[in-house]
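Support case: S-adenosyl-L-homocysteine complex. Customer-provided input:
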Amino acid sequence: MSRDDLLHSLSSRIADERVLAAVAAVPRELFVAPSLQQFAYADRPLPIGGGQTISQPTLVARMCELLELGDDDVVLDVGSGSGYHAAVLSRLCRHVYGIELDAELAEEAARSLRLAGIENVTLAAGDGAAGLSEHAPFHAINVAAAAADEVPPALEAQLAVGGRLIAPVAHGDAERLVFVRRGPAGLERTRLNAVRFVPLR
Ligand code: SAH
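Agent response - structure generated as follows:
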């Protein structure tokens, strides 16, 4: 699939023009190994080392759409992996703080983001299930690895009022995307479609 084919196929499933423009603006080939660059615009996850994968473009776009990002938003990206999802988020908000458990992946992701000319993403290596309290609260939180049974409470706690969170949650063998909004009266959780993610470790 070429870059144009991918964008064309996304445009039939994603309504938000800002999100489509953000995906179009990020060169996904910079976030995969040279040997996989020929597959960079296939709509599927690809291996990035450490047993992990770069997120699938459709899922990245859908999650970005659900987060309803505004230009001034500050976003937390948990499980930044290759940095690709963070790169797309960065086109839709003011700043992205990314946290990745695997320090080698985090270093590689920082390099890819630099090559892509993206300057509003700050990456840290560490356990993202605890969030990033020094930069909280966040207008939006994006989680790329599936937590067991519930969204980590520390992440929900770091949502600003009006803030949105999207996270895969595993219940036994089944996984669903969960959407959380902090409304004036507290947290509102919605279970969305079935998905398949790597586990949050
Ligand atoms: N968004 C990434 C996808 C990475 S896959 C991309 O676009 O490339 C999910 C990532 O979550 C993996 O890199 C894995 O190392 C990371 N991860 C798993 N558990 C984590 C945790 N507790 N804290 C931070 N990162 C975690």
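The beta strands are 46-49, 52-54, 74-78, 95-100, 121-125, 138-143, 147-148, 159-171, 174-183, 186-194.

Case will auto-close in a few days if no follow-up is received.
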